[in-house]
Amino acid sequence: MKTMTQMSKLISLLLRHNPGKLGLTMDAHGWVGAKELVEALNGVQPFTMADLEHIVRTDNKQRYSFNADKTKIRANQGHSIPVDLELEPTTAPDELWHGTATRFTASIEREGLLPRGRQYVHLSPDEETATKVGRRHGKLALYVVDCAAMVADGYEFYISQNGVWLTNAVPPNYLRRYL
Ligand code: HQG
User: Fold this and answer.
1) What is the pLDDT of residue 57?
2) Residue 14: what pLDDT?
3) Is 95-177 CATH 3.20.170.30?
4) Domain with CATH 1.10.10.970 in the chain
5) CATH 3.20.170.30 placement within the chain
6) Sign of CA dihedral 16, 18, 24, 30
7) Domain covering 4-75 in this structure, CATH number
8) 3, 78, 147, 161: which could form a disulfide with 92 (CB 3.0–4.6 Å)?
9) CA–CA gap between residue 92 and residue 57 (Å, rounded)
10) What pTM did the predictor assign?
């Protein structure tokens, strides 16, 4: 029997990377039918709409959103498949943070931050959040991103429904190693 956390990880996989794994279809905006998702998960183990609502409500990073009438659900960020989340370019703070692992720093300082497997580069609003993100990958390295200079040079930033800053790429000249 999977725990609720394991079910949430499965939901992340389905809504960010591979809806087809359980035969689901996703629209161009990243939405999957909520009933269809519940039915697919119920095929793994007993799972109800109330379970899905509980996961969405209590998720520690607010990773998922329902549409207004709760007929559809999507991930707020983190996709590897291209989806149009209908995010408007948003005024970024002068600086944002990026947490990563020391084994990536040589490459990052050469190429800048690239989205790698995902649709966007993910940036954090503060040092604490970036620290958590970076530690997932190994020995922590932190960068401060000079968003003010990037905005002046025409780069665009977006903020996801759950407060993660997104941009297409960050060239190395806008990065300052902090740790
Ligand atoms: C690194 C989590 C070498 C980058 C978090 C990162 C976030 C490079 C890794 C969300 C590079 C990609 C995303 C380059 C970037 N050379 N390495 N040129 N450019 N990298 O997991 O930002 O818990 O795809 O530094 O909270 O760590 O999943 O991105 O280390 O919001 O919901 O390539 O995932 O949310 O790793 O995390 P990821 P991320 P969840």
Assistant:
1) 98
2) 98
3) yes
4) 4-75
5) 95-177
6) positive
7) 1.10.10.970
8) 147
9) 27
10) 0.94
DSSP for 115-128, written as a single string:
-TTSSSEEEBSSHH
The pLDDT value recorded for residue 123 is: 98
Ligand 1 pocket, residue 78 CB under 6 Å: yes
Identity (one letter) of the amino acid at 176? R
Among 12, 79, 80, 104, residue to substitute to test ligand 1 (most atoms within 8 Å of Cβ): 104
Indicate the angle between helix axes 4-12 and 34-42, nearest 10 degrees.
Answer: 130
Q: What pLDDT sits at residue 71? A: 98
Instruction: Return d(Cα 58, Cα 56) in angstroms, integer.
Output: 6
> Which residue from 156, 125, 129, 21 is spatially nearest to 81, judged by alpha carbons?
21
* 115 vs 113: CA distance, rounded Å: 7
**Residue 118 in contact with ligand 1 by CB distance below 6 A:** yes
